[in-house]
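Second opinion, please. Pick holes in both lines of this record:
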Amino acid sequence: MIRAIVTDIEGTTGSISFVHEVLFPYARARLPGFLRRSAGDPAVKEQLEAVRELAGEPEADQARVIALLEQWMDADRKVTPLKVLQGMIWEEGYRQGDFTGHVYADVLPCLKAWHAAGLALYIYSSGSVQAQKLLFAHSDVGDLTPLLSGYFDTTTGPKKESESYRRIAAHLGLSGHEILFLSDVVAELDAAAAANFHTVQLVRERDMTTGDHPVAAGFDAVCLPEE
């Protein structure tokens, strides 16, 4: 029996376009000013040092660090310091009401139903835990965080590696067979399946590549495995 559901965000709970057309450009435009304004903040300094370490440039000045981060953003690198800094910038945007987090219409009713049925609900995304919490706390349909039991990001591991899903299962104290993973990306679903998770691919757009996983057009079409 399924005891927990872990879901991706982009293309699964919300549109990919929101991330790529709203969130990413917002952070890209505000990154230089944010870092110059907040470079003395301990949390920001920690991430800037992580950028230098990851780039192998321990002596990089602020201008070089900004250039590295902009390069990583343009390449959509899934690296933790970039994701954390983006999350800090997005926090300002959410709190100022510059945007709200996009959620598909079928998501909230299903999250409520699954939560009421006693299923634990978790998020696993390449975006930082901070960014995930902000999106669901400031979503189009209100604060969804009371429905969610926890969040996982790149600090758990890459989403296309099966060991990441084994870590999630161990953290939850469950076997893979007790967890359902929802995503639109076949490689992520393959990795989860290799860790014995049940899987469903969300196919919300036409001409999407599908694999050997059950598919659903929305959360309301997801069939929970009974075994």
The chain has two domains: 4-16+100-221, 19-95.
